[in-house]
Amino acid sequence: MFLGIGQMTTTILILYVAKMNQTVHFQDFDRSILIKIFPLPLLYVGNHITGLASTKKLSLPMFTVLRKFTILMTMIMEARLLRKTFPNRLIYSVLAIVFGALVAASSDLAFDAEAYTFILLNDVFTAASGVYTKKKLGTEGLGKYGILFYNAFIIVIPTLLASAFTGDLHKAITYEHWLNALFVSCFLMSCIMGFVLMYSIVLCSHYNSALTTTVVGAIKNVAVAYIGMFLGGDYLFSWTNFLGLNICISGGLVYSYLTFHSTSSKPSQSDESRIQGNQDQLIIPIDRLPVK
């Protein structure tokens, strides 16, 4: 939780300085901000806390596998909240990703009920956060930077109080390695990369659907799974788990191909305008033709 507070504080400082330098622009704070951005701050802190808790308790490969359920949840929420429809081929590729996750998780020899609860809650928060972020990006006055800034700004104090209440803050402050340069460097880097990650997610959601953002993130996470097999030290290898991981990546690649192939096959707005312009030029009023 303290690491989450560090990431929120870093987000606030970076965007505030950027706003003061007029590098980025978003609405100044007033009471309307709370209405515009709700419920994103609640989803934001829920995503942070459950994500960090599940990362701590699960091996990296299993964390990556169980995160795949976010994709299915995102698809369902987009259909319900944003009224989106998906072609059958995309649905089948998503189901393949989820099926691969089930296959991989079925061989988990380090099952931890508390860890699985945290990761599934994290899936719910991530899916809801992605869908609502896409919905709020069109809100006047917020934009990409406003969503990031006010998410962190509104929730950092309540999270700090919760951290103090649970004893997490005391444990963090009294941690013995605060004078260790390597630890401090890693902590600060994690705070900065937390901001980079959140900005990347919002930016991707701005240009794509929430589902595409989730799937692209899942494909990226497969690299974490493969690296974790060799560097993490906590991965228990089994052929079933390895097969499930490969099914996941296959489904993700198929989804990516179908999504971006269909996007590239559609005419762009400029192409449509040029085609329309050519069509307009071909229309010749009959009553204006010269009569011999």
UniProtKB/TrEMBL annotation:
Membrane-traversing stretches: 89-109, 115-133, 145-166, 178-203, 210-231, 237-258
- Whether Plastid counts among this entry's keywords is no
Q: Which residues form the Sugar phosphate transporter domain?
A: 5-256
The protein's superkingdom reads Eukaryota
Q: Which GO terms describe its cellular component?
A: membrane
UniProt-annotated location(s):
Membrane
Q: Which UniProt keywords apply?
A: Membrane, Transmembrane, Transmembrane helix
**InterPro entries xrefs:** Sugar_P_trans_dom (IPR004853), TPT_transporter (IPR050186)
Bilayer topology annotation: Multi-pass membrane protein
Question: PANTHER family given for it?
Answer: SOLUTE CARRIER FAMILY 35
Q: Return the protein name.
A: Solute carrier family 35 member D2
**UniProt source species:** Hucho hucho (huchen)
